[in-house]
Amino acid sequence: MNTATAEAPSTDRVIPHSPAEDVLGIAVGTLVTSFGLFLINTTGAVTGGTAGLVLWLAQTVHWPFAAVFALVNLPFAVLAWTRRGWRFVASSVLAVSLLSVFSLLHPMYIEAAQVNPLYAVLMGNLAAGIGLLIVLRHHSSLGGFNVVALMCQDSLGWRAGYVLLALDATVVALSALTAPFHTVVLSAAGVVVLSLVLVMNHRPGRYPVAL
Predict the structure, then answer these.
(1) Contact call for residues 95 and 140 (beta carbons, < 8 A)
(2) Residue 96: exposure state from Cβ atoms within 10 A (0-12, 13-18, ≥19)
(3) Which contacts qualify for 78-86: CB closer than 8 Å, 24 or more apart?
């Protein structure tokens, strides 16, 4: 009998995160994501994702951002509830709430007037991608497009990063109707950076604990 084989640890064993680890992971992920979004916003770059879509819609129909945000995210929440369960919805609500709170902290402590726009957009999207990856690994999401991306990954085998890239590209294209051309180009480059982080690190079957 090969003792080396017998004593080798099983690579098939999955050690799930504890509830405390999930909460801490979501907190860290949303903090990193909020910092990335802060860097992006200092340049006036077009924002991708559900937040960018909501901002564009709010400007178009002249409704309050909060009202449009609630209307847009409601069907995503119902979809997530029916397809992924109440635990996923609850953790996503926690993630979105923490992101909102953390987003208020950075302007209080960081003077970003001298940040180079190219650096801010690329590094901001890199940080946002890493933060979002952490959130996804702890069985949560930031709502909206994240829910669609995860469902496409679960049901169709499509990588979440590719789905988010396509959705974000649509938002950037819509925002181009009002944003300066150079800002749109810079924003598009940032979206590619964020999506590549997810494509390379959130691949189905590569990480057993991943969603």
Answers:
(1) yes
(2) buried
(3) 79/147, 79/148, 79/151, 80/141, 80/143, 80/147, 83/151, 84/147, 84/150, 84/151
Do the Cβ atoms of 177 and 111 come closer than 8 Å? no
Paired tokens of 71: 């209307």
Average pLDDT over the chain, rounded to whole? 78
| Between residues 43 and 4, the one the model is more confident about | 43
Q: Is 4 exposed, middle or buried (0-12, 13-18, 19+ CB in 10 A)?
A: exposed
Q: Are 135 and 33 contacting, i.e. CB atoms less than 8 angstroms apart?
A: yes
Whole-number Å distance between alpha carbons of 35 and 25: 16
**60 and 72 in contact (C-beta within 8 Å)?**
no
Q: Which of 25-29, 51-55, 114-118, 137-141 has the lowest mean pLDDT?
A: 51-55
pTM assigned to the model: 0.77
| Chain center to CA of 28 | 13
Continuous H helices in the chain: 3-7, 19-41, 49-61, 65-84, 86-102, 106-109, 117-137, 145-156, 160-175, 181-201
| pLDDT tens, position by position, 11-24 | 456 677 777 888 99
